[in-house]
């Protein structure tokens, strides 16, 4: 199929019907799109070996790989849940970026801000939802590839607990962090899709026990607190009362509770530029990602010498040429951070974070201008990435005509709790965000 021009979101359009026509299925009547990192057969049939070639965001990858011989379990789950697939979406090359700009297939148009990047690497999946072309979409999130485009495109984006959803049939980027995530505009749809993907029963919502707001993390954001934490605090107070709100310095907590992260502390870190302990988490995540990416793809890259976009080529080749690493220290950081955050949040606790540290960058922004923004972004994104916790990005309307968001993070395995909480909070948050928007723009 030819690429369509619908917001530039799709690399290929087609129809895969649900495996059952029953109207009683949880996703009946919904349409979805799939990131071009996920294997799919042409008829969604377990026994059909005629599949689409998964492109991984690069024409040379597509040229040198065969058609899929299986459909990823995540796609099968939503097809069996009653949803209809309408195509595959554009992504960053080899999932190695969070901007969403693809030199080969084009950059999907951000529906909230056409002069800004849509976010990546699940750019097309986010744009397809944000532009109203589908009800939900599937993406993958390794370092932030669902959360970032959800924030930039003004929609909901969910990164599940690591290993909670099978990544079988998904081209690996870095298995220690890879997850199958999803986007939606409607919190009820986000919840329904999550229950299908996570094989969760319907359960009654649970009141959060504590909600932690790390002021140091929000100091990294260029968005006024009235448009982020102010909106959330008023919403929590309305629904649950203010007694569950707690303030914490997350940087100090991580520094104390994650001693292995000290190995990755950069000397002379400027606190105004970043939070040293969180920058250390980001460094450990980046190095382990690079190690696993090299294990997965170095042979193909060195053999094929693919045509890579100029903004990605250097980064990908640096990974391929990087020295062998002793990954034991990275594993220690993961273990310590998960234990520390589990102890902080306990049961039904929530950590609030900026999804990203500010406005979506402009298209083709120079790399030097992006450096500080990217460093701050990955410090925030690495908290869920390294711990394996689940995280959801929630839109908060517009500030200065650009989308604003906030994230909620819950401990590993608390996906159902987090999905229910988002649905319970969403309308109140949108009301408060609308009120704040009138007085801060």
From TrEMBL:
<protein>
    <recommendedName>
        <fullName>Amidase domain-containing protein</fullName>
    </recommendedName>
</protein>
<dbReference type="InterPro" id="IPR023631">
    <property type="entry name" value="Amidase_dom"/>
</dbReference>
<comment type="similarity">
    <text>Belongs to the amidase family.</text>
</comment>
<dbReference type="InterPro" id="IPR036928">
    <property type="entry name" value="AS_sf"/>
</dbReference>
<dbReference type="Pfam" id="PF01425">
    <property type="entry name" value="Amidase"/>
</dbReference>
<dbReference type="GO" id="GO:0016811">
    <property type="term" value="F:hydrolase activity, acting on carbon-nitrogen (but not peptide) bonds, in linear amides"/>
</dbReference>
<feature type="domain" description="Amidase">
    <location>
        <begin position="21"/>
        <end position="191"/>
    </location>
</feature>
<dbReference type="InterPro" id="IPR020556">
    <property type="entry name" value="Amidase_CS"/>
</dbReference>
């Amino acid at each position: 199929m030819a690429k369509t021009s619908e917001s530039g979101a799709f690399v290929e359009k087609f129809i895969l019907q649900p495996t059952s026509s029953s109207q009683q299925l949880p996703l009946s009547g919904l349409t979805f799109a799939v990131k071009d990192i996920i294997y799919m057969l042409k008829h969604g049939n377990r026994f059909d070996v005629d599949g689409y070639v998964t492109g991984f965001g690069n024409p040379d990858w597509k040229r040198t790989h065969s058609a899929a011989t299986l459909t990823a379990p995540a796609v099968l789950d939503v097809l069996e849940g009653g949803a209809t697939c309408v195509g595959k979406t554009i992504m960053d090359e080899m999932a190695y970026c969070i901007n969403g700009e693809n030199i080969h297939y084009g950059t999907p148009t951000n529906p909230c801000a056409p002069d800004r990047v849509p976010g990546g690497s699940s750019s097309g999946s986010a744009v397809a939802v944000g532009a109203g072309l589908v009800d939900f979409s599937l993406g993958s999130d390794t370092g932030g590839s669902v959360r970032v485009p959800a924030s930039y495109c003004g929609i909901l984006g969910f990164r599940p607990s690591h290993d909670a959803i099978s990544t079988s049939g998904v081209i690996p980027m870095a298995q220690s962090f890879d997850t199958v995530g999803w986007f939606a505009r409607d919190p009820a749809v986000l919840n329904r899709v999550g229950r299908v993907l996570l094989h969760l029963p319907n359960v009654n919502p649970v009141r959060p026990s504590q909600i932690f707001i790390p002021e140091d993390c929000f100091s990294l954001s260029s968005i006024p607190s009235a448009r982020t934490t102010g909106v959330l605090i008023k919403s929590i107070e309305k629904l649950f009362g203010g007694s569950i709100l707690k303030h914490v310095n997350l940087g100090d907590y991580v520094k104390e509770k994650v001693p292995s992260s000290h190995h990755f502390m950069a000397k002379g870190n400027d606190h105004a530029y970043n939070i040293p302990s969180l920058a250390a988490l980001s460094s450990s995540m980046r190095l382990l990602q690079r190690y696993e990416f090299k294990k997965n793809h170095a042979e193909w890259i060195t053999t094929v010498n693919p045509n890579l976009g100029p903004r990605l080529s250097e980064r990908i080749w640096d990974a391929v040429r990087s020295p062998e690493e002793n990954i034991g220290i990275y594993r220690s950081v993961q273990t310590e951070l998960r234990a520390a955050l589990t102890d902080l949040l306990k049961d039904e606790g929530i950590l609030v974070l900026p999804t990203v540290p500010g406005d979506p960058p402009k298209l083709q922004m120079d790399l030097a201008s992006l450096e500080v923004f990217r460093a701050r972004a990955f410090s925030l994104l690495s908290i869920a990435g390294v711990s394996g916790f689940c995280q959801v990005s929630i839109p908060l309307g517009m500030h200065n005509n650009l989308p604003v968001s906030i994230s909620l993070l819950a401990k590993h395995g608390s996906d159902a709790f987090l999905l229910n909480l988002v649905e319970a909070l969403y309308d109140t948050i949108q009301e408060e965000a609308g009120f704040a928007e009138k007085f801060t723009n």
